[in-house]
């Protein structure tokens, strides 16, 4: 039986990432103070992974405008991330940090490690500026994610964080009506 990580804080970590041509150190302290996405995937030089990472790269500028930093994470090393970035046109367009987690410590702390394979499930985690996990999405290895839908989820999380007492209904988009839960709504939706 698993326990949800929703509303828990990111665990301490230190790792090296490949980011814009350099190797940079990243820790949980870098996550605090802004919205963040941790985007786990199984492995570099594979099949579904580059489609997801490329899709996310296409939405990265929009996420940055929303005050969100993206961190992709796999159990590969930062050296492997650089090699993949340098040899793949799709991965070459990535400008967000690509964290190497060869020990699996970060992957395990988010509960997405496949121990028998030493790989991560396709796990997406959205954190608020306090480092609390607000959105979790986990997929089996063969099911790719949608960056467009991830943007919508971040927009909803940011909206409810600044609008106390309101909630976003299914498929909510910015500018649409939200709900204010009350006894008056029970059984009327």
Question: Could you characterize the architecture of this molecule?
Answer:
It is a single chain. The protein is α+β, with helices and mostly antiparallel strands. It has 5 helices and 9 strands. The protein has helices at 48-65, 78-87, 89-92, 105-109, 147-162; strands spanning 14-19, 22-27, 35-40, 68-74, 98-100, 113-114, 119-120, 122-127, 133-139.
Write the layout of secondary structure elements.
Layout: E1 14-19, E2 22-27, E3 35-40, H1 48-65, E4 68-74, H2 78-87, H3 89-92, E5 98-100, H4 105-109, E6 113-114, E7 119-120, E8 122-127, E9 133-139, H5 147-162
Parallel strand pairs: 3-4, 4-5
Antiparallel strand pairs: 1-2, 1-5, 3-8, 6-7, 8-9
**What is the 3D shape?**
globular
Please count the beta strands (DSSP E, at least 2 residues each): 9
Amount of helix: 25-40%
Strand percentage: 15-25%
Q: For the largest beta sheet, what order do the strands appear in spatially?
A: 2-1-5-4-3-8-9
What name is given to the CATH topology? Glutaredoxin
Question: Structural class of the helix and strand makeup?
Answer: alpha+beta
> Total helix count?
5
Please identify which CATH superfamily we are dealing with: Glutaredoxin
CATH class: Alpha Beta
Using only C-alpha atoms, the radius of gyration works out to 17 Å
Biggest sheet statistics: 7 strands, mixed
Mean pLDDT: 95
Enzyme class: oxidoreductase
GO biological process, one term: hydrogen peroxide catabolic process
EC number: 1.11.1.26
Organism: Pseudoalteromonas espejiana
